[in-house]
Write a structure and sequence with these properties.
By secondary structure, the chain is of the alpha/beta class. It is built from 10 helices and 13 strands. It has 2 domains: 143 residues, 3-Layer(aba) Sandwich (Rossmann fold), CATH 3.40.50; 153 residues, 3-Layer(aba) Sandwich (Rossmann fold).
Length: 330
């Protein structure tokens, strides 16, 4: 009797927010080409809201790494690893490219284990199939290289299928606003208080736009009346709701920046201090990048933008506030 079992694919991309967002076009393209395929996504619980409900994803496999510490954590880890191998996928795609993710791929028991050529920590030794990518390319481009390996056509426009959202209780939608996300996990990526206040002055100098501050970081007090600090107060779906309705968003190089780009590419500017905007910046050419005192659409970037940068001056942050208002009005 012929088996009716659907093809099963396990995608491993546990973190971080930006990396999970960058992998969304891969699962969308696979689902579009093979709609009957069952795709599960292994990721950390913090990012489950980004993929649960996605029509391409049948189920999430949560990797609660914080619960695996200590002697009792080892027992929980063993139980979790047993569950990982029980599903028996036909193929596992490791987009994380680290030793741990490659081990997970092997433990899954999939006959095909696929990784990228720029994987680290010796993880390529555990990948049965290696997709050749250019390590200088943008993450989205590198991840989409898996499609060529699988014989799936590249999408004309990568699809970032993000969840439905809602605004936090008490959020005012009656007047326009620009969003500032000043925080970042990477060392030296966040904007300091002086830069934040200079940006606010730039917005208020020529408009009645509100400034909405979002993200996770050290709170700042005594803002002007037209500034609302929603930092440390929103979940992911509320953050998506705020970014969706924003007239323009300015962000540090961070996960929420990539979220804003996926939601409204032409209304987002990323501030890059030392990171490479061609590799980890906004993906779409219609977005904007500030680095080393210059602002450009992503479509206008070249290799001269890859080098080490510097923090913006207060005058430059004020100018970025004015830029956000001008673009938000278009």
């Amino acid at each position: 009797m012929k088996s009716t079992r659907r093809m099963r694919i396990l995608l491993i991309k546990p973190s971080s927010m930006g990396d999970v967002i960058h992998a969304l076009p891969v699962v969308s393209a696979i689902h579009r080409h093979y709609p009957d395929t069952e795709i599960r996504w292994l990721l950390q619980p913090a990012w489950r809201m980004l993929v649960e409900g996605n029509p391409a994803i049948s189920e999430t496999v949560l990797f609660p790494r914080d619960k695996f510490h200590g002697p009792s954590g080892w027992l929980r880890a063993i139980s979790w690893l047993r569950i990982l191998g029980d599903w028996k996928p036909d193929m596992t795609i490791d987009l994380q490219g680290l030793l741990r993710s490659a081990l997970f791929a092997r433990i899954s028991g999939a006959p095909r284990v696929i990784g990228l050529s720029d994987a680290r920590e010796g993880s390529t030794l555990l990948h049965g199939e290696r997709v050749k990518v250019n390590r200088h390319d943008h993450a989205v481009t590198r991840y989409l290289g898996v499609l060529d390996h699988l014989g799936i056509p590249q999408p004309q426009a990568p699809e970032f299928a993000l969840p439905e959202s809602h605004l936090p209780a008490g959020f005012d939608t009656t007047s326009p606003y620009v969003v500032l996300h000043p925080y970042a996990r990477g060392k030296g990526k966040s904007l300091d208080e002086g830069m934040i206040r200079a940006f606010i002055r730039g917005v208020t100098a020529q408009s009645e736009y509100r400034v909405i501050i979002v993200g996770r970081g050290k709170p700042i007090t005594d803002f002007p009346q037209n500034v609302e600090d929603w930092s440390n107060r929103t979940d992911l779906l509320e953050l998506i709701g705020i970014l969706r309705a924003s007239s323009f968003t300015v962000s540090s190089d961070s996960g929420p920046m990539h979220l804003a780009v996926a939601l409204n590419s032409s209304k987002t500017l990323a501030i890059h201090l030392w990171s490479d905007p061609l590799k980890v910046g906004p993906f779409f050419g219609s977005s904007f990048v500030w680095k080393n005192g210059k602002t450009s659409p992503v479509s206008g970037l070249d290799d001269s933008w890859r080098g080490i940068g510097r923090p913006p001056t207060h005058q430059e942050m004020k100018a970025l506030g004015q830029f956000a208002v001008a673009k938000g009005m278009n």
